[in-house]
Design brief:
The chain has two helices and six strands, in the order E-E-H-E-E-H-E-E. By secondary structure, the protein is an alpha+beta fold. It has one domain.
């Protein structure tokens, strides 16, 4: 009688590392008449938002920055959600020199 090799055990579920998504905002602005440029950088965790809502909230945040407001934060601060971002006080700035915004996916 021929010998057959044993049936291997079923494959386990592959480990999938969760993807973290952050909406990152960088800005350079002048706060007052002294003309000294300042920098702002903060990010928002956007894992649970749909792509449409990510675009919407990034656009709303950019519009607010273009109107001359920056959230009160420390450099590189991570906000848990956009509701947390909009709950902090926003300070008035004199002039927005340039800004960059986008969503980055990190494993």
């Amino acid at each position: 009688m021929p010998r057959f090799r044993p049936i291997p055990p079923p494959l386990g579920r592959p480990r999938v590392t969760p993807v973290r998504a952050y909406a990152r905002f960088y800005a350079q602005y002048k706060k007052d008449l002294s003309g000294i440029p300042h920098r702002a950088s903060y990010q928002v965790t956007v894992d649970r938002y749909s792509p449409r809502m990510k675009y919407h909230w990034v656009a709303v945040t950019c519009q607010r920055m273009k109107k001359g407001y920056i959230p009160q934060h420390y450099s590189g601060q991570v906000f848990g959600s956009f509701s947390e971002l909009f709950s902090v006080p926003w300070i008035r700035i004199r002039k927005l020199i340039k800004y960059t915004a986008g969503v980055e996916y990190v494993r």
